[in-house]
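Quick check before the chapter quiz. The format below is the same one you will see on the exam, so make sure you can read both the input and the output lines.
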Amino acid sequence: MQTWVIRGVVLAVVHAVAAVLVAMLKASEPTGRTFVEALVLGVLVGVAATWAAVDAWRGVADRARAWVIAALIAGWGSAVLTIIGRAVLVDQTGTSSLGSALTGGAAFTALLVLIPAGLGLIVGTKLERPSPTAGKRRKSGT
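Here is the expected output.
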């Protein structure tokens, strides 16, 4: 399976779940959402940055292209899943919200994946990989 499929689908689900949870919080308590929104945004950015850094550290082939495509998949997938989740769980959001979700919302989510992933790829290439013999014990000459 292509690496971008897994990354895109997982991040789309993660972003959609986070968006629906924040919408549920806004509906139940409109004044106490600032800290939670910032925390959720930080977690979403951290997931993409960490996963991309691990990809770079492991030396995954064609990782930059995989993350660009994954960001696009995550953006559009998250937009559709968020509309479905909000319609079912929060406020009966209709298909009239789908247009703005597929444009502005998808672009925002794609950037929330792409920019941290790019930084993660840069950081991951700078990390030192363990040597293959680091875990093996040296035999004594006796």
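If your answer matched, good. The mean pLDDT is 82.
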